[in-house]
Sequence to fold (457 residues):
Amino acid sequence: MNNKKMGQLINAHLLCCAANRTAQRISLYASRFDFLRALHLSISEQPLKLGSLKNPKISAVSAIGLLFLMSFMTANAVYAQGHAGHTVQPPAAAEKPKAAKTQVPQPAPPEEMAEETPQVDISPEQQRLIGVKTVKVSLKPIQKVIRTVGRIEANERKQATINTKIEGWIEKLHVDYTGRYIKKGEPLVEIYSPELLATQQEFLALLKWAKQPDDKKKDDTLSLMLARDANAALDAARQRLRLWDISDAQIAQIEKTGKTVRTLTLYSPVSGFVTQKMAVQGMKVMPGEKLFDIADLSTLWIIADIYEYEMSFVKVGQQAKITLSYFPGKELSSKIDYIYPTISADTRTAKIRLTIPNPGGQLKPQMFTNVEIRISLGQKLVIPESAVIDTGTSQVVYVDKGEGAFEPREVELGLRADGAVEVLRGVKAGEKVASSANFLIDSEAQLKGIKPLRRLK
Fold:
């Protein structure tokens, strides 16, 4: 027997063995199926009660059946898990080669279509719910209103300080309290001064010699000493009395009576109120020492602070309205008469001065006032300040395009005045912008990634 036949016999034997094993496995599965079917029928006819003393046979059969069923299910699960993923897939069909696509050139979009106009869509019902309001961009006359606080002060041009130019003692005090009103020319104080008394005596002696006839001057000892400059000495004595604030009327009185005055009387040079009093009865005074301050309060100054960015609007001669909280309903009018040349380094403000009459004396120094200055800026293209959203790097408005569409647009702003702001670039007259609830529209735009359009050229 050759090798070929031997191989054929061996293959036939192996096929027979495999067929027998397959038949045995099928028979085993069939017997298991029949047993399980019979067990199911017996259980369905009478409920399963394990451990029941009344039906011990059924209990035993049920228990054995359950154990067999569990082992069968476990074996099948293990078998299935072990052969998972070994499913034979049918051979895939050979992929056909893809044809190369021909690139068709597209026409370039026009320049005006390169960038779409961004817009946010808000339905009319949503606009009503969130309170959207629009206002038309228009040319309007606007005014810059500057409001500040002023402080009333005494008019420096109508103040006087009383001091003495000689050394002496206060012998009589005519003004004995602060706040007293005095008129111009009224006496304030009398000062006794030995030096003043000696000068008066010298003046009277020179005056007496000057009045003597010429024939008697030759025999007089004084005439021999002052023959050459007697008249000059007399004029010097008179001038010294004047420098000590002795008036010409007082000097004339001394010449007329030929008597010295014991004290020097100081008179008020202005009419007004004594705002400061340092003089006390009997005190010693020295040259240059201040005794009284007197202020005429018939006209007063108002000193107000203006921020440096407002300085370009303020000019001398502009009208201002003055109101006071303690005089409700009363308005006063004044003009700016001076702008101080310096700015405070701490507050970054400059001071302006206004003069105001005070005929009834109701206004007092150190009172506070409200100052309002209105400056006309002419016709400007304006929108409300509430329509502008400041992003930190730009200013944005939402232009109403109609049918619920709002276009975010950058704008360039100019002057701000009384709730309105000038628009230099970005919108045109006649367009409508959202003036309320625009922050809600902006939030919607941010959520959708819509950025404002720049039209500043």
Summary: The mean pLDDT is 79.
